[in-house]
């Protein structure tokens, strides 16, 4: 803060906005405030920035899903922010600057609802992914009416296709159309959501090349 010593028409000492005032050998002066030196981030900071960008590219195409599938843990934050926090801590492998996502460790849904047993996925004609599982209705809070969550993420295109209503748990199978990913490899997951909004931790069902 600047201080006026001799009234409004006098000089001042200190800083006012971008101007610095002072006195040298009885001569009052004003000069522009010196800009701070450019900040050079440390390797640790660069590594964190790289991790941040890597996870955001992965999660952003699923924002609509994650705001629902992570909401049980999203206390005073959005679901996608909670998903970001989980995956940046648990799903990144490698060392700076060659980080990568271990998709088998990533979650696209998170909660206390039991997931299905023995889930698997296959790619068939027409770029259709077929998911299958063993019904475990009645285990914990799992019910036959729980809806399957199917997710396919294409690293090449950095895009995702998903559904929150793939099939009932009791159906034992369901399909996801991923025609935009034809000929490309995708990473896949399955989860479940109940009528009351309880969500299961997703299970990674592997990498599949789309027919």
Q: Could you provide a short overview of the structure?
A:
With 211 residues, this protein is of the alpha+beta class. The chain has three helices and 13 strands; from the N terminus they run ββββαααβββββββββ.
Task: Offer a few descriptive terms.
single chain, 211 residues, alpha+beta, Immunoglobulin-like, 2 domains, 4-stranded antiparallel sheet, 13 strands, 34% strand, globular
Q: Could you describe the 3D structure shown?
A:
With 211 residues, the protein is an alpha+beta fold. It folds into two domains: 30 residues, no CATH class; 167 residues, Immunoglobulins (Immunoglobulin-like, Sandwich). The chain has three helices and 13 strands, in the order E-E-E-E-H-H-H-E-E-E-E-E-E-E-E-E. The strands form four sheets. The protein has a four-stranded antiparallel beta sheet, with no helix packed on it. Strands 10-9-12-13 form a four-stranded antiparallel beta sheet, with no helix packed on it. Strands 7-8-11 form a three-stranded antiparallel beta sheet, with no helix packed on it. About 2% of the residues have low confidence.
């Amino acid at each position: 803060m600047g201080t006026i010593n001799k009234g409004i028409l006098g000089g001042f000492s200190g800083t006012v906005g971008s101007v610095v005032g002072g006195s040298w050998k009885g001569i009052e002066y004003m000069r522009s405030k010196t800009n701070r030196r450019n900040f050079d981030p440390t390797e640790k900071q660069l590594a964190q920035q790289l991790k941040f960008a890597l996870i955001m590219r992965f999660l952003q195409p699923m924002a609509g899903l994650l705001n629902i599938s992570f909401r049980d843990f999203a206390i005073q934050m959005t679901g996608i922010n909670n998903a970001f926090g989980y995956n940046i801590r648990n799903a990144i492998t490698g060392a700076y600057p060659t980080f990568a996502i271990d998709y088998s460790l990533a979650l696209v849904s998170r909660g206390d609802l039991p997931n299905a047993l023995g889930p698997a996925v296959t790619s068939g004609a027409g770029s259709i992914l077929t998911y299958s599982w063993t019904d475990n209705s009645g285990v914990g809070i799992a019910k036959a009416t729980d809806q399957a969550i199917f997710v396919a993420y294409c690293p090449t295109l950095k895009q995702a296709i998903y559904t929150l209503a793939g099939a009932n748990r009791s159906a034992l199978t369901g399909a996801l159309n991923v025609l935009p990913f034809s000929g490309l490899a995708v990473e896949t997951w399955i989860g479940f959501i109940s009528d009351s909004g309880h969500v299961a931790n997703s299970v990674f069902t592997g990498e599949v090349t789309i027919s």
